[in-house]
């Protein structure tokens, strides 16, 4: 039933597949403080959407509303075709959740807890999606095989986080929510995690992930959403976002053994001039285009100087 | 049969057994569960040779069933409340919410855990008392049956109170400080360690309206001779009345506890757990 609903809406929605997550006009208000003021968001099946934003932008609130853990003030929300506020257990079985901070079950052993959580998913197997994942395989996937018999309260922060991710995917979810999953990861764990997310996307799992790490967003995202002040101020691929911000490119070169750096809005024109003037002596040219980081900083700064609405609409214009 | 509800029920049973095993291998848990028992048994031994006024029953023999009743109500009220507050703050409840039928598994697990812990505490008390106290015997199979149903019904009557308290009190550390005083007051008037019959009548009425008096009375009926009835409020063990009062508390308690638990569980979110973590870290 739920699947049919989702597919039925696909033609009017994003191209390239049915929408797994559809949000429009989402609002959240605590007392007289607006945390979310009209968020629109859409994720196709198998898409990896990364939500970026400063602290307090409403990332966690958005994710918790989609997970069904928080009631919203207004707006339309559908996750796998169902409203999270009224989603039943069958719907719940198709989601995976990794929250920001969990330090529960300290006395349990790693494999003990994974096996326990896995049991709940067994009645929800579907053709093509066997639930749950085998625990041994899962331990291998997240790199916890050597810690399988350890008590959870003896794990390091990064290991603990891997366990959280393992529990999030034990039910082979169709939609996975990850709220800052890589906090406390070392570079190697981070890379393993990125491989894991790519693997999930290959299994047709929709991933919605929040992070502070722009590099991570660039590596993982099919689409990036920048949330600031309770609004989506920009969205697109990392390249699209970078291209929309009129930031200067940085050109570096050496001449006569000396290093030069120059910022310019038009790197091509500048280089043409540079080479024409003193082409023979110039060596080691490097051009760094405006990056996702520049775009992020500019957009968030615009918002913080009280210009969020303008930033959002200006961006919409540019995309068109 | 492999329906979601049955699966969750079985997972919950297994969960309770696992948690019981964790409890029985944790120094902290063993100390907090058995510490009080050890102290009271030691005090009882010092009271040897002294008898309840007007009877030939040693005071220690009267204390022991009272201690069993107290253990049951501590498990029901204080242990349930502090486990709930702790596991709400550390994210255990939220984890259960994120899993299909996870709350069923959690609650069944908690119930099994509490029943197993309480049963082993009561069993240890019975064994210690039988070994150490003169003339302390259980009234055969009927006695066993009485101890069993009083334990279970006593837990059913008190656990909803603990669940409500654990849901309403926000910090795990506040649970004990808020509950201790009223709990001690109830213990004082409920005839746990001395005859409720000698208290002012209005106190007897309050005591008889609350579960602890009846749990302790039921336990005494299983271990004490009928000659001890002279110090009770009414000269009868009144087991039918005890069952009725405890059942009434259980039903009323569940009617109140279910919506309170639901509301508490609904309000759980990652942000709350995160706030709890920050509070815990500030305390160091």
Helix content of chain A: 25-40%
Number of strands of chain B: 0
Approximately what portion of the residues of chain A adopt beta-strand conformation?
25-35%
Q: What string gives the helices and strands of chain A in order? A: HEEEHEHEHHHEHEHEEHEEHEH
**Physical arrangement of strands within the biggest beta sheet of chain A:** 5-6-7-3-8-9
The multimeric state of the shown protein is heterodimer
Give the terminus-to-terminus CA distance of chain B: 48 Å
Given the C-alpha coordinates, what overall shape of chain B results? elongated
Secondary structure tally, helices of chain A: 11
Shape of chain A: globular
* Quantity of strands of chain A, as a count: 12
Q: Major β-sheet of chain A, in short?
A: 6 strands, mixed
Order of helices and strands of chain B: HHHHHHHHHHH
User: Radius of gyration of chain B over alpha carbons?
Assistant: 20 Å
Structure description:
Chain B: Its main location: membrane. Chain A is an alpha/beta fold and 320 residues long. Chain A is built from 11 helices and 12 strands. In chain A, a hairpin with a 2-residue loop joins strand 8 and strand 9 (231-236). Chain A is globular, with a radius of gyration of 23 Å. The relative contact order of chain A is 0.13. Chain B is an all-alpha fold and 284 residues long. Chain B contains 11 helices and no strands. The longest helix of chain B has 31 residues, at 59-89. The radius of gyration of chain B is 20 Å and the shape is elongated. The A-B interface holds A 60-61, 63-64, 67, 69-70, 89-90, 92-93, 95, 97, 99-108, 112, 116-117, 119-124, 167, 171, 179 and B 2-4, 7-8, 10-11, 14-15, 18, 22, 26, 87, 90-92, 94-95, 97-102, 105, 268-271, 273-274, 277.
